[in-house]
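Q: What would this chain look like folded?
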Amino acid sequence: MRLLILAALLGAVALPALAADPIEVRIRDHRFHPDVVEVPAGQKARLLVINEDSEPEEFESTDLNREKLIRAGASATIFLPPLEPGEYPFYGEFHADTAQGTIVVK
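A: My prediction, written as structure tokens:
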């Protein structure tokens, strides 16, 4: 019994850190809400991007090497690796003039 408890505790420590809940980002009126998202440094994170617009949009970030088409009324999960502190811009390719945001890693 003690070995099972010890194994469970060691296994939990060995798992990579992941931010507990996905961070919601909504696309509304061809803009990201919020347009600044904070994530902790050195931890994996998940963005849940929800497109409330009547047109598709593409979440894109060259710095993060992420690109995901999100249909109108749909959502997508964007997985982020552990990141160094800094700012990582993202944008909506179909409305790049208004759909812009930044991930701030602290």
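The chain is about 10% helix and 45% strand.
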